[in-house]
Design goal:
About 45% of the residues lie in helices and about 10% in strands. Strands 1-2-3-4-5-6-7-8 form an 8-stranded parallel barrel, surrounded by 6 helices. It is elongated and about 80 Å long. Bound molecules: phosphoenolpyruvate and manganese (II) ion (MN).
Length: about 375
Amino acid sequence: MEITDIQDWGLGLSEHVLIAGPCSAESPEQIETIAKGLRGSNIELFRAGVWKPRTRPGSFEGIGNDALGWLEIARDILNVPVTVEVAKTSHVEAALKAGVDVLWIGARTTVNPFSVQEICEALRGTDIPVMVKNPINPDLQLWLGAFERLNKVGINKLAAIHRGFSDPYEKRYRNKPEWSMPIHLKRMLPGISVICDPSHICGTREIIASVSQRAINFGLDGLMIETHHDPDNAWSDAKQQITPDMLKIICENLNFRETLEEHPEAISELDAFRQKVDLVDAQILELMADRFQIIKQIGEYKKEQNLAVFQPNRWQDVMQSRIKAGVKKGMTEKFMKSLLFAIHEESVKKQEAQLKEVPTSSKV
Ligand code: PEP
Ligand code: MN
């Protein structure tokens, strides 16, 4: 897939993009006050929702087309490009006509390939940058699919926004971060910038600073943070918005990890650790091979004795004892479970294959 680096979009965006602005555009005065408050911050792109996808009807659904013109106010005050969310053809047409610099596709839209395709058709022939939020459910394929559709109509200026995933059992976050998802996306789409949206992950402003730092620690490429001069009275997402001053404090306290290029002396020190890790990995592989050798012998025995490959009681014992031992040594239960499942699945597959093998003596 062809992806133009965010720094080459011609909009002055850096490798650590900061996107800020209100959840929704409410009035020209609101946009002006917020933009003035953001002076002196590191903002590189101003956001404001104009059409708001509300989960239930009755809440504020955005001002609509009229608010598009207000974005100019922020552009003039801050001298940065502006971005809005689009969800259908009429939004794309209006946003393009109004000269919006970047579009984003919201989580409730990414989830629906029909809507994404409709947006793509409206974008055909343009080269406006598009940022795609993750779908509300943790489905990497849907997220990837949206990028592929956009790429097919010629949009190469692409970025991703990680805003967390809906989970009814989640208590701490509004949307569970599932950090492995954005990291996996970065592996699948080399060159893409993945920007974290801590506002929609957190749902409450108190934990935005710590989630922002985690995003940086995981190597994500920027932050999109909802910012309002009077967050408690915002017309949407009041609990999660922060003031421009709070944003500045959060950004000043972020600790950006240095890359190896900036730290050449670290390479040889890291190499020493890595050699040790390589050795341990080699030992793990040797032991794993020994284990599968024994599994093979057990397989032969089960075959001779006509015993079932899967023995549930033994499996329960193995799981319980190994998980307990692993947790005692500092590994998480989740990690132990997935490790044991992977080993067990491979063992069962190998023994099943043995059962199907024709004994050498009966081969003609
Ligand atoms: C938003 O950014 O205001 C928004 C509606 O977000 P999401 O699509 O992540 O829910
Ligand atoms: Mn919002």
